[in-house]
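forwarding from the other thread:

> can someone predict this with glutathione?

sure thing
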Amino acid sequence: MRIIRLILGRLILLFNWVFTPRGVKRSPDMQAIINGKTSKLALYQYEACPFCVKVRREMKRQSLSIETRDVKRSDAAKAELLAGGGNLKVPCLRIEDAPGQARWMYESGDIISYLKAL
Ligand SMILES: N[C@@H](CCC(=O)N[C@@H](CS)C(=O)NCC(=O)O)C(=O)O
C-alpha cells in the first residue's frame, strides 16, 4: 500500500511538472500589491498530495508567491498546523488577518476560491 501511494505520488508530481501551468504576467506595481497580500499567507501541505498539487497549480497560474510549509518534512510545521488549525489535514491555508491573529482554511476548493478572489 505504501509503495502504491509512493508511486502514485511520484506520478502526480511528474504530471504536474510536465503540465506546469503558465503564470499570469502583471506589471511590477500590480505584482507588488499582490505580493503584499500573499505575504500574510502560508500553505501547509505535503509535496505529493493531489489536493495540495491542485492548490499549488492555482498559485502558479496566478503567480502568487505564498510560503509553503511541508507538514511531512517539518515537525515544527506539523505542530503549528495541529495547534492552529486543529487537524492534521492538508492543504490548509493560514491567513494572518492581524499580527498574532490567524484563520486556518482547510479544503482545497475553498482555498482556491479564496486565492481567486485576492
Ligand atoms: N477534501 C479535502 C481532502 C484533503 C485530504 O484528504 N488530504 C489528505 C492528504 S492528500 C490528508 O490530509 N489526509 C489526512 C487526514 O484526512 O487526516 C480537500 O479537498 O482539501
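The longest helix spans residues 2-18. thats all i got for now
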